[in-house]
Amino acid sequence: MVLMELLELSLKEVLYVFLGVRFTLKYLDKMRCLRKRSAVSFLGVLVICLLFMNLYIEDSYVLEGNKQLIRETATHQLNSERYVHTFKDLSNFSGSINVSYRYLAGTPLLRKRYLTIGLSSVKRKKGNYLLETIKSIFEQSSYEELKEIAVVVHLAEFDSLWCDGMVQDISQKFAHHIIAGRLMVIHTPEEYYPVLDGLKRNYNDPEDRVRFRSKQNVDYAFLLNFCANLSDYYMMLEDDVRCAKNFLTVVKKVITSREGTYWVTLEFSKLGYIGKLYHSHDLPRLAHFLLMFYQEMPCDWLLIHFRGLLAQKDVIRFKPSLFQHMGYYSSYKGAENKLKDDDFEEDSFDIPDNPPANLHTNINVFENYEASKAYSSVDEYFWGKAPSTGDFYVIVFEKPIKISRIKVITGTEDRQNDILHHGALEVGEKIVGGKKGRQCTTYLRLGEFKNGNLEITEVEHKVLFDINCMRILITKSQKEWLIIRSISIWTSQPPSQ
């Protein structure tokens, strides 16, 4: 809205000057009859030149004023929810940023992949972890997983000698991945970067810190821009991490479990820019966003604002974390950085499938701890007020499934008494009812809860039918409230059609 008003103002200024020029020309035509031709020509040319000089000066002044106002307004919008729609209008960029990249290793992809992993790296004063990070990505992926990923390394360093040396090392160590078309190394020439000196010193950061974080925003913007059409999804990593085994399989399970839900960012680590997953179709808008506010704040803060402005209010973070920070020295001045993600598990392959489903309960829900939160892959839970005999919590699967294993955990560390004291787990078939109240007509009891928990294996050998529903049934009233912390379901081969 602000941008449109400013453009409108600028157009009005131009229109007034244009009308003034037309009026002057008409006036000169009349004067032509009263003055000598030579004098009229000289005065006419002089007046027109002055008017055009005025147009240039006023337009430049308006343009600079507009730029400043837009910059100040955009900065203010960053912290206000009521400007969400304005931001969407201003940044609805579907096209890429006009940048010519240099391919330092690898060639353009011949086919689209499932996931692109993006790394941006610069010369460090101490230590270098890029090669170890690339190695971890490839070593922790199976042959089948490697077919679905592309790794893009953006060497965002202006020191050409360092870039040449790093490209040589990467090409020697990962030649077969480059030949296979799953590894590319790119560079953005310095000429495409905006001004990096004399920037605003927000948060009392020293000038060199402001320059470092501002350039980092631009580095990531150019990387995102390059990766926009390479795959369905994009994973942002730093250049000093190690990966969990078969992380791609886990990521795919999480994405599948969230089908039908809206999300902008899924997080697979709680640190910095590590393990942030995006839809590739959002990358052009995110790239423009980082460039728009590159000097305002660090990149991880901007990523939070971007998520919020696109209407994902809450963090959606998966546990255990799939990526761990391994660097000891920061890329900024070589300062020590000992941050570790204590939720990281290197062997995270045993992740539940949790197929798409609808969930409902007749237990009185407390505040916003809805039924769906117990079935989520993130750190959330269902919390209901004291349940009574016969109350239930039902999962109705979108398609009939074969289940191999089920695990349900109730209560939390700080509320250890809010467990299911008396309950059973059942699976059912033959769905009846509408969308809001779908149920199965028949159920088979598989087991009962002990100390608030339940785990059943080899379900496929105990249940002969394709499962449509799963139900937690309260078998005895309790005075304590109930927290269902997590429901995990592993599926076997899908049923034959």
From TrEMBL:
Pfam families in UniProt: MGAT4_cons (PF04666), MGAT4A_C (PF23524)
Residues in MGAT4 A/B/C C-terminal domain copies: 357-485
Pathway(s) per entry: Protein modification; protein glycosylation
Annotated keywords: Glycosyltransferase, Membrane, Transferase, Transmembrane, Transmembrane helix
Gene Ontology molecular function: acetylglucosaminyltransferase activity
Domain MGAT4 conserved region: 80-344
BP GO terms, sorted: protein N-linked glycosylation
Residues that span the membrane, as ranges: 37-57
Keyword Transferase set for record: yes
Keyword Nucleotide-binding belongs to the record: no
InterPro entries (UniProt xref): Glyco_transf_54, MGAT4, MGAT4_A/B/C_C
Domain of life, source organism: Eukaryota
Name under which the protein is recorded: Alpha-1,3-mannosyl-glycoprotein 4-beta-N-acetylglucosaminyltransferase C
Organism the protein comes from: Eublepharis macularius
